[in-house]
Write a structure and sequence with these properties.
This protein has 350 residues and is α/β, with parallel strands linked by helices. It contains 12 helices and 10 strands. The protein is 36% helix and 15% strand.
Length: 350
């Protein structure tokens, strides 16, 4: 039979590259979006979760009937929970309380046990989701901790898949990639592969206000005064992830919660792309750095959009949430919800 698969995990990877048009009007270089939300778990994290679990199986670290434990902002957790159901493992996750309700609902729908941890405590605090995840793994027999923040397999997964895909899809013409930086695996794996192919390729990392990554990249120092809660899940960090290879990143750009939220709406209205918060951050960061890139028709830009908008219905796509956070400068549209029964008369009873 044609176009059939043995299970959903065979759909991971080979995500499409789609040209942006209206939002890039006036830019001389073509700009493409790598739509990682098209993975079966709706994010780039499918790649690392599947790869790390496969390696754990091969090494014997993960045995039949075992438990997979991880620290996550939601997307990696969903990927692990999905893979665990297919492969017959248990799944326990420690997540930040800035993760919105629909992401938690997705996790429990797949049978995961979820520990919700405060976002406001330092990384080394016993209640941080980093420390809670590690403690759970130590106390759970026959378990492994994926440790995406410090596991170099995180980088390797993207080096072996996402990087080659971008190179092949652009026929080696890519000159700039813009990638969000959280654990750092995506940007490091892509950057490492592409720079091996062409050292002149520019790798631009997107960071959040409230994160230490940009300043650490520039100075190799951690400035704790920069640490405060932000709203973009999975973006930025209050520690230096071991899964980030800063040597392949040319520049970091910081974006605000508000501007990234507006960018998500712009992509939906102008391009018909229903993407997640970090995707909006990637596009916003690209807009901010655009003047210094001096792009021309010999360049080709790829923006990596990490996940799908379906996971943010009660966040950026909620008028209530936007208003509660004083994000009120939304574009005007004709969108409206109207009760047909109040507008049209009908003699037949419904």
């Amino acid at each position: 039979m044609r176009n059939t698969y043995n299970n959903i995990l065979e759909l991971i990877g080979n995500t499409p590259l789609v040209k942006l048009n209206k939002v890039t009007a006036g830019i001389k270089a073509p700009v493409f979006a790598k739509l990682e939300g098209q993975n079966p778990g709706h994010s780039a994290k499918d790649r690392i979760a599947n790869y790390i679990i496969e390696q754990a199986e091969k090494s014997g670290a993960l045995k039949p009937g075992g438990t997979i434990v991880e620290t996550t902002s939601g997307n990696t957790g969903f990927s692990i929970a999905m893979i665990a159901r297919v492969k017959g493992y248990k799944c326990i996750l420690a997540i930040s309380d800035k993760t919105q309700k629909e992401k938690i609902a997705y996790l429990t729908a797949l049978g995961a046990k979820v520990y919700v941890c405060p976002n406001t405590v330092p990384a080394e605090h016993p209640l941080s989701y980093y420390e809670v995840g590690k403690r759970i793994q130590k106390e759970t027999p026959n378990s492994i901790y994926l440790n995406q923040y410090f596991n170099t397999l995180n980088i390797e997964a993207h080096y072996l898949s996402t990087g080659p895909e971008i190179w092949e899809q652009t026929e080696g013409k890519v000159t700039h990639v813009v990638v969000c930086s959280g654990t750092g695996g995506t940007i490091s794996g892509i950057g490492r592969y592409l720079k091996e192919k062409n050292p002149a390729i520019k790798v631009i990392g997107i960071d959040a206000y409230g994160s230490i990554l940009k300043k650490y990249h520039e100075t190799k120092t951690i400035d704790e005064t920069e640490i405060y809660p932000n709203k973009i899940e999975g973006l930025g960090k209050n520690l230096v992830p071991g899964a980030t290879d800063f040597s392949v990143i040319d520049k970091y750009v910081k974006v605000t919660d508000e501007e990234a939220a507006y960018a998500v709406h712009q992509l939906a209205l102008d391009e018909g792309l229903f993407v997640g918060y970090t995707s909006g951050a990637a596009f916003q960061g690209f807009k901010q750095v655009l003047p210094e890139l001096k792009l021309n028709d010999s360049h080709l830009v790829v923006l990596v959009f990490p996940d799908h908008g379906a996971k943010y219905i009660t966040k950026m796509f909620s008028e209530k949430w936007m208003a509660e956070n004083n994000f009120t400068d939304l574009p005007k549209t004709d969108a409206e919800i109207i009760s047909a029964s109040e507008v049209f008369s009908c003699q037949e009873k419904i």
